[in-house]
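Suppose you are handed a protein chain with no further information: no name, no annotation, nothing but its sequence. What can you learn? This example shows the usual starting point.
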Amino acid sequence: MADANGLSVRISPKGVLNFQYRFLWAGKYQRVSIGQYPSVSLKDARNIADELKVLIFSGADPRSYFTKSSSSRAISGCIRHSSSVSSSR
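A reasonable first move is to predict its three-dimensional structure. Written in structure tokens, the prediction is:
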């Protein structure tokens, strides 16, 4: 089911909803998974789709959004954990 601006939702036979973003990259249509509902709300999926569109206009591959976001979150999580451990001592 299409929403707008490349955002769509795929529904599995088991009823799992997965948000996806469809875009044109190097002359070919690509899809990137944004996440599953309810972990990702429709509002959040629309915001992420808008951010992915900005990446495309700037010449960056939108699939890199998730690898950078994941590693940034992992690093910031480690830093928070490290500082909370050291402050408790």
